Amino acid sequence: MKTKHLKIGLAIATATLTSVLYNNFDFFSWSKPAAPSIESVNEAARVAHAKELLGVHYRGSNAQRLEGKRSMNEMIYKKVQSSLAPKWKAQARNITRTVIAESTKYHLDPVFVLAVIKTESKFNPLALGRFGEIGLMQIKPDTAEWIAKKYGLSWNGKKTLENPSANIRIGLAYMNYLRGKFNGTALKYVSAYNMGPRNVRRLLAKNLKPAEYNTRVMKNYQALYAKISDNSNMVIASN
Fold first, then answer.
1. What is the CA radius of gyration of the chain?
2. Residues 192, 198, 204, 208: what is their CA dihedral angle, to the nearest 10 degrees?
3. pLDDT digit string (tens) for 84-93?
């Protein structure tokens, strides 16, 4: 008899507990953790660098039209996400956060960073160049090792460059180094990223402008801004 009563009591307790759990399902963390937020773009740095890149052409440009847009971080994320191959889209948020954080660190326009990535690798994190360049920003392992040590960045051999975020950190540290070497003259430091500072100086010594690579980057830079600006206008119109 006692056993029978015990079984009935256990059954009632189990049913009650099941009901409580069902009605308070949100109490438990069954859902995926929230994705990390994307930091805001440093607007002052973005504008200053855009002016450095565009010079007199900044006035009236899409870079100027987007001044003060608080959603620049989300616009950049959408561009990164749409540019990556399906297998890499899950990393779009981390890549965007790295682009924005490192751009803030070195006072760069993050859209310029996207333009370099598009020019170098077309957003393929595993792209391999003819001369051993690796990853999104197409960096040679010897250059990457040197700049990583100079800037105190993590370096675990050339495999490091296959990590999109590590690749961007090292690539932008190198860009920052070149920018300092050429006193913020965009044509020179952007060209040097592709052909090296020594070759840029050789051309300049012959009164030749190293324009080809810089032209490609700037063409992508302005095309990206046009696309971002169009998306921004669509959002405003829909509201």
1. 25
2. -70
3. 999 999 999 9
